[in-house]
Amino acid sequence: MEEELKFSERKFAAAFEASPDPIAITEIQNGTILNINSAFEEWSGYLQEEMSGKTTRDLNFWISPEERDTVVKILNLQGIVHKKEVTFKKKSGDIRNILFSAKVFGTEDKTYMLSLAEDITERKLAEKTLLKNSEELHAAFEELTATEEELRQNVDDLAKSELALRESEEKFRSLAESSPDYIMRYDRQCRHTYMNPSALRVAGLTNEQIIGKTHSESGFDEAQSRFYEDKITGVFETGKPFQIQFAWDSVDGHVVLDWMLTPEFSKDKTVQSVLGISRDITQLKKAEEELLKKNEELGSSYEQVTAAEEELRANLNELARQEQALRESEERYRLINDASLDFIFSYDTSGRFTSANRNLCASLRLRADQIVGRTHAELGFPDAQCRDWDELHRRVLKTGTTVTDFTSTPMPDGIIRHYEVVLNPLHDSAGTITGIAGTTRDITERKVAEEAIRQANRKLTLLTGITRHDINNQLTVLQGYLDILESKQSDPTLNEYFSKVSIAAQRIASMIQFTKEYEKIGVNTPVWQNCRKLVDIAAKEAPLGKIVVKNDLPVGTEVFADPLVVKVCYNLMDNAARYGGKITTLRFSVEISSDDHLIVCEDDGDGVVAMEKEKIFERGFGKNTGLGLALSREILSITGITIRETGEPGKSARFEITVPKGAWRIAGKNT
């Protein structure tokens, strides 16, 4: 029961600490805050050390006095979860809306409150925005109603317009009759439905000779008729105007006409007729020819000036575009720069600040104009740090981009922090270094977390080592007593049971050995491993008997893997020796599959049954411990390497180890 209680406490502590929501535990009688989780620290700005032993009144935060009294009144029943929306004042002074959830528990002597705060400030703002949008939608509906009324009025106006259109048609006819231009109208069969007097005169025709007839039916030659009718038909089909200039022999002699065909639409927007208007532009063409002749004399120089003007205009447009892009880029950079949680800054080549973003100014508690133009020493940085920064500046100017970590002396807030620094040289258009741009990221929490994990792993390793040692001692005792009992018992029928107990003890010992091997996975940092050497080392240690190992891996073949990868080669050889049956040869080779490389281990033995190709990688499957291939898969997965069995049952076993791009190279060079 005590162990279960401790386990329950650990589970509660883990859940309490891992919760993404801020949680606090308070003693109700005196309001003392007993504990808060990491999410509460990060969200509120208060640390556990500041909160422990304090009351909500001492810290003057939590909720307002009026809301606190209301909450206290409703928290009078144990085991009931209460929820209430209240305001919350963070350490920074920021006021947030929260949904306060609390549950009271405890004994008659002491009661506690477990409270959880859900930040609903953004949701509140969204509700206000939704209300505003609803009001705007209502206004839009009213505007739509007004538009509908206006549309109804437009329909009445359209009826009046139709009457005016008929009147306009009469006016058109009057204008057409008196126009000097040649006006005609055609139906879909290219027949003339109207031709004004000017057109009749110049064509030398009467209404009886042309109305209701096509050009060919009216005596025009075949080529002319086909030309006219093709153009008219094209306007009917496309619904688009057509214009052309051509020469024509009229009763007045050889003339040049500007012929315009315009579609006339019906109410259903189909072309019901085509209106043609021709204008005699003979004199205009002659004037144009004379003007063209004069212009040709100035054409060469004009074209040169025009080309130069166009080039200048293009250059100006390009400069304007580049200037606009530069302004937009600078604005985006400024916004990103000020919004970044990192420190972003730049120096000139002498190490003086030329810029500092908002976060850096806040950290140093200085304005940008108090930072720009000064060195670290002039800003009061410790001598040791100034020397470090000067060395970094020299390194960047000499070798280029530099990435490093450093630990600060106490900042203005009194805390020693860890930072990751990235510095890049700045160049002008000629390639000359004009300064240095840098970013500094606060990695204090990451460093603390890494150290905590190292300490936890160290303690866990010690605990599991002691536990394995004790269990192995007990197994030795158990096996000894079993041997004694087996030698003293006289009933042969019990031998089978003694054998099963002994096998079970051996399996327990194998499982304990697996935990020892598994414990080493991921402890050491993955490094580049020479695959050919790994196979050679494993072949010397594995119980191969008469099995021949062919190592066809190229010289210099390397994979990025956990140092325990040598056990993968050993386990594959051991597995082949145990289950290969008629096996005589085991071969290691390399194949390429897309961007990946395959390390292939295949033999000429009995192979793996189809239904067991995936089960063999499960812990506990098999005739022995069933841990070798399971351990191999875990070791490979650390750096994204996978393994599967693809051999043909009854003929051979084939294990394909897929190494992804980036985790493979030859002779130390990435491929």
Structure description:
By secondary structure, the protein is of the alpha+beta class. 48% of the residues lie in helices and 24% in strands. A hairpin with a 5-residue loop joins strand 9 and strand 10 (271-280). It is elongated, with a radius of gyration of 46 Å.
Short summary of the structure?
This protein has 671 residues and is α+β, with helices and mostly antiparallel strands.
What order do the helices and strands come in, and which of them pair?
Elements: H1 2-18, E1 23-27, E2 32-36, H2 38-44, H3 48-51, H4 56-59, H5 65-74, E3 81-89, E4 95-106, E5 111-119, H6 121-178, E6 182-186, E7 192-195, H7 197-203, H8 207-210, H9 222-238, E8 242-250, E9 253-265, E10 271-280, H10 282-339, E11 343-348, E12 353-356, H11 358-364, H12 368-371, H13 383-399, E13 402-407, E14 418-427, E15 433-442, H14 444-488, H15 495-519, E16 527-530, H16 531-541, E17 548-551, E18 557-561, H17 565-579, E19 585-593, E20 596-603, H18 628-637, E21 642-645, E22 654-659, E23 664-666, E24 669-670
Parallel strand pairs: 17-19
Antiparallel strand pairs: 1-2, 1-5, 3-4, 4-5, 6-7, 6-10, 8-9, 9-10, 11-12, 11-15, 13-14, 14-15, 16-18, 18-23, 19-20, 20-22, 21-22, 23-24
Helix pairs in contact: 14-15, 16-17, 17-18
